[in-house]
Write a structure and sequence with these properties.
- The structure holds two protein chains of two kinds.
- Chain A is mainly alpha-helical.
- Chain A has one domain: lithium bound rotor ring of v- atpase (Four Helix Bundle (Hemerythrin (Met), subunit A)).
- Chain A is built from ten helices and no strands.
- Chain B is mainly alpha-helical.
- Chain B has one domain.
- In chain B, α2 packs across α3 and α4 packs across α5.
- The N and C termini of chain B lie far apart (about 50 Å).
- The mean pLDDT of chain B is about 85.
- The chains are: A mainly alpha, B mainly alpha.
- At the A-B interface, α4, α5, α7, α8 and α10 of A face α2, α6 and α7 of B.
Chain lengths: ~325, ~220
């Protein structure tokens, strides 16, 4: 067997595509299962609304599925990519793209299943507000997809941008690091956004009058939960677009790879933690809408503290990229 | 696919430095200004107790945003900050929607626009904080809970600018990259209109709202 450049590139693309779809299937399936479980509970509680609940379940699952559809698109692009360009950097870029999309779809898939499930059980509790619940579920689930969309953007950039002008030695590690940074940091943010959206559907079903302030709090809470994945996006942009000097030692390359891994893992916990803070705030805004302003402020301060760990990870990554 | 990440730039060399101007972005920003001025003019001209449709639209819009600002900042400060908040939201909304028109691009697709707006919100929030609390109390907050947390608190404040501006930039630019690639792969059949509706109208509106709300909440965290 000959190990020429083309073989290595196609090997990277095929394994990247497989990882993208394999990892990408995890989240959406769990999220959809959660939705179906809540729908069953809801139908057994109020069998009269079973038609509405069934319809809502299908819509919610369709939105939750979109994360894994993004993964499918990237996987197919990788399987039929252009292998003719004889440059080893392409192999790293393809593998990084697969990792970014596959890991990035996990959180958003699980997360967007949560509002769909809560909306189903909310319909069984308050059939009168079905349309408001469905609208709120759609907004919440769609915003949950943002980390997966960021991952898809990084994957598309890795696939299509021409990196052949850069030196092979540190650049391969930078591209792998870019994929890992975005993919891993999207896990927590996607799930955290789902927690906030789920609480908002539950809250609207309990207190239909508080819908405006609940939706506002949910959107702000989700946006702040996504901050770790935005830091991940920032690090992966820097890794993709900064030009690194050629080096023969492996240390420089490992530094860049470590920067990506550091930001990626560092973003998981803060994403989930911020989501929990947002979940609490949204749940109590629904029950106590007069104090929505105070609750939102406390939520934001709490999130800023739990987010500080993501900021430490970002600082270490930036030091690894620019100083070491 | 070569246009991924390409920009038309005017580069002016000046005393050894070079000033880079993104021509398209400036043109698009001016178009957004023109649209906003035209809308404002149409909504306020010939005001009447029986409003015409466009006046109704303007009033609904302003009262909604005014109410949101009042909830977060209180009656007194809302009078001061609501005009800014309304203007910010309308600018972002038109900016994010303008990509729906063929040959026009969103100004928010450029990091310079979003970073500029993020910096503006940051400066306003901190100015408001210094004005209400006084300079001493403002500085003292950075040394909470213990004095050596100061650098980390400082980085945390700067990270707010990064997150608010990258959130808008990433969403809008990500949408346009996905539309570009999908249109290229499907030869612009069937799918792109749905993608424009999702990324332009839906994501654009939500992100404009989120950016505005976060600016309001950052001000309210500083003043209370």
């Amino acid at each position: 067997m000959a190990w020429n450049v083309e073989t290595i590139i196609s090997l990277a693309a095929y394994s990247g595509g497989g990882l993208a779809m394999g990892l990408g299937a995890i989240g959406a399936a769990i999220g959809e299962g959660q939705t179906a479980a809540q729908a069953n509970l809801a139908i057994s509680r109020s069998p009269k609304a079973s038609g509405e609940i069934f319809k809502n379940m299908l819509i919610g699952q369709a939105v939750a599925e979109s994360a894994s559809i993004f993964a499918l698109v990237i996987a197919i692009l990788l399987l039929f990519a252009d292998f003719s360009e004889p440059n080893l950097i392409k192999a790293a870029a393809f593998f990084g793209a697969g990792l970014s999309m596959g890991l990035g779809a996990i959180g958003s898939g699980i997360g967007s299943g949560l509002p769909a499930g809560e909306a189903c059980s909310g319909i069984s509790r308050q059939p009168a507000v079905t349309s408001q619940l469905t609208t709120n579920m759609l907004i919440g689930s769609a915003v949950c997809q943002t980390p997966a969309i960021f991952s898809m953007v990084v994957a598309l950039m890795l696939i299509f941008i021409d990196f052949s002008g850069s030196p092979l030695q540190p650049t391969w590690a930078a591209l792998l690091g870019a994929g890992l940074s975005m993919g891993l940091s999207a896990i927590g943010s996607g799930y955290g956004g789902g927690l906030a959206a789920g609480a908002s559907c539950e809250g609207i079903a309990r207190q239909p009058r508080s819908v405006a302030s609940v939706t506002t709090t949910m959107l702000v809470g989700q946006a702040v939960s996504q901050t770790p994945s935005i830091f991940g996006l920032l690090i992966s942009f820097i890794l993709m677009f900064k030009s690194f000097p050629e080096s023969t030692s492996l240390a420089a390359a490992m530094g860049l790879l470590a920067a990506g891994i550091c930001m990626g893992f560092g973003g998981i916990g803060p994403g989930i933690g911020n989501g929990m803070a947002a979940e609490g705030a949204v749940r109590w805004v629904a029950r106590n809408a007069e104090h929505a302003g105070d609750l939102m402020r406390i939520m934001l301060v709490g999130q800023a503290v739990s987010q500080s760990t993501a900021i430490y990870a970002m600082v270490v990554s930036l030091v690894l990229i620019f100083v070491v | 696919m070569k246009e991924l990440g390409k920009l038309h730039q005017l580069i002016i060399p000046l005393w050894g430095y070079s000033i880079t101007i993104n021509l398209e972005v400036i043109l698009m920003t001016w178009i957004v200004f023109a649209v906003l001025i035209a809308l404002g003019f149409a909504a306020t001209r010939k005001r009447d107790i029986l409003p015409r449709p466009i006046q109704t639209l303007g009033e609904l819009f302003i009262s909604l945003l005014y109410g949101l600002t009042e909830d977060a900042l209180g009656k007194e400060r809302a009078r001061q900050y609501a005009p800014l908040i309304c203007a910010l939201f309308m600018f972002l909304l038109i900016s994010n929607w303008i990509g729906l028109v063929p040959n026009l691009d969103e100004p928010t697709k450029d990091l310079n626009t979003t970073l500029g707006l993020g910096l503006m919100g940051f400066v306003i929030a901190h100015y408001a904080g210094i004005k209400t609390k006084g300079f001493k109390a403002y500085i003292k907050e950075y040394f909470q809970p213990i004095f050596f947390m100061m650098p980390l608190n400082l980085i945390g404040e700067v990270a707010k600018i990064v997150s608010i501006s990258f959130r808008l930039f990433g969403n809008i630019m990500g949408g346009s990259i996905i539309i570009l690639v999908v249109s290229h792969l499907t030869y612009s059949i069937v799918l792109p209109p749905f993608l424009y509706a999702f990324f332009g109208l839906f994501v654009g509106t939500i992100q404009a709202f989120v950016f505005t709300m976060l600016t309001v909440v950052y001000i309210s965290v500083q003043v209370k």
